[in-house]
Amino acid sequence: MAAATRRAASSLVSRCLLARPAAVPSALRRPDGARGLLPGVLQKFGTAAAAEEPISPPVQVGDTKLLINGKFVDAASGKTFPTLDPRTGEVIARVAEGDAEDIDRAVAAARKAFDEGPWPRMTAYERSRILYRFADLIEKHNDDIAALETWDNGKPYEQAAKIEVPMVARLMRYYAGWVDKIHGLIVPADGPHHVQVLHEPIGVVGQIIPWNFPLLMFAWKVGPALACGNTVVLKTAEQTPLSALYVSKLLHEAGLPDGVVNIVSGFGPTAGAALASHMDVDKLAFTGSTDTGKIIMELSARSNLKPVTLELGGKSPFIIMDDADIDHAVELAHFALFFNQGQCCCAGSRTFVHERVYDEFVEKSKARAARRVVGDPFRKGVEQGPQIDDEQFNKILRYIKSGVDSGATLVSGGDRLGDKGYYIQPTVFSDVQDDMKIAQEEIFGPVQSILKFNDLNEVIKRANASRYGLAAGVFTNNLNTANTLTRALKAGTVWVNCFDIFDAAIPFGGYKMSGIGREKGVDSLKNYLQVKAVVTPIKNAAWL
User: Fold this and answer.
1) In 12, 364, 372, 410, which residue has its Cα 20 to 30 A from 228's Cα atom?
2) What pLDDT digit, counting tens, does each position of 308-364 carry?
3) No. of H helices and E strands in the chain?
4) 345, 346, 383, 519: which one is catalytic?
C-alpha cells in the first residue's frame, strides 16, 4: 500500500475534511401533496442515485455459516436468517442463525484451543507474525472487503475502501507490534522475597460487535484479545454478519490455529444473551446501546461475575466559539454529525454555537446540508448512503417529528429521500432547547441539532448535563479557551479543531453511561490480561 494511503488510514477524518465539498447537482423539489413534516417547503439535496437502479456490487457473497473450531458449519437448529441490502430492503443472502447451543459449541472450541492448543503456547514472535500476515491479507483483499461492507451496511464504498479497511490493517499491525512487548515486572518487597508480577492472557473472551462499523469493531475487539494470547467467541450484529465471516477466513489463511477465533451470527436475545451469561467465558466485551449494555452487564454478573468492558452510546457536544472560522466550523460540525449516515456513537449530535455567530452558522449549515450528496453508496462521490434498516429508518423519522412537535425549527430536510431503500434527507434543526428529546437522546441518524449559548461556563454546564460522556468537540482559536474546555468536559475523548481522529494508538471510551474501559491503544490490552503476583522466599540474598 502506498504511504499516502497508509497515512489516510490513521484517521477517519484525514481524507474527508481536507476535501472540498462536492459540487451541487440538480436540486430536488418535493411534488405537491408529497408526505412530509413541512409541506410546501423547498428542500434541496445533492442526489447521486436515490431514484436510480442500484449498482450491482463488485463482490460475491462468500461464507454464510458459523465459524466454529476452524470450520464453517450450519447452526445446530438448521435455522437461517436474511441479511438485507439497505439500498433496497432486498435479501443479500441467508446466514446461519446461531443460538445458545451454537454458543456452547463455540465456547467449547475456544476453551480447548486455550487450554490445550498451540496459540497461548506459541512464542510472542510467532503470534505476531500471524497477525502481520493477516494485515497483509486484509490489504490484498481490500476492495472485496470494502464492497461487502458497503453492500451489507450501506456506507459509502469510498469510505470503506479508502479509510476503514486500511485502518483495519493498520490496527492489526499495531497489535502485532505489541505482542512481544507485553511483559510483567519484578518488584522489591520489604523482606527477603523475590516478587514477580505476571501479565497473563485472561482465557476465553466473548465479544459482541455492532452494525455501524462491523469490520472496524471486529479489529478493535479481536486485535488486542489475540495480541494478549486469548481465544475468542465473537457474535456479529444480525444486520451485518458478512464482513466478519470473510476476514475470519483470512485469519486462518494467515496461520491462526483452529478454535482461536469463532464467529457466531445470530440475535441478541438468543446468541448474545447466551454468550454474556456463559459460565465458561472469562471476559466479555460489548459495543452497542447503553440499554443493551446494562443487560449485558447484568447477565455477566449473574453468571460467573466475568469482567466486562462496554463501549456504549453518546450525545456528544460540539462547541463552536465566537472566534471560530465559521466556514471551517460548519464543515467540521457537518462531518462530525453526518459521517456514516449519522450512525456514530460519538457523533457531534449537540452542536453548541455562540450567540454572536449563531445565525450565520445556521444559514451556512443549512446550505451545506443541501449540498450533501445522498444516493447509492457504490456511486463515486456519494457522501451519504441509506440507514441500516427499516427499524432505524423509522426511529430517526420519529425523532424528526418529535423535534418539530417540540418547537425546534426545521431548516433543512425532515423526510425520507426517494421511495426505495432507507434513505433520509440530511436534516438540520435550529432553536433546539436542552429539554427536547432530540437534544437528550441518541438519534443515530443524519439529524443535526444546533443550540445557542452565550457564556463559557454556561456551555460547560449544559454540555455536561447528559447521562453520556463518550466524546466532545471544541472549535476555537483561543488556546486558553481550548484548555479550559478540554479539562472541564466530562468525556473520554475531546477533539480540538478536529473530529473523529481514530489513530490506532489513541484510547477510546466513555465517562458515565457511555461505557467502561477503553478500546485501542495500550489501555485496550489491559482488558484482556490477568495480573498475577508470584512471591518466592530468598535465602542468603546478596541484595534485595
Assistant:
1) 12
2) 999 999 999 999 999 999 999 999 999 999 999 999 999 999 999 999 999 999 999
3) 18, 24
4) 345
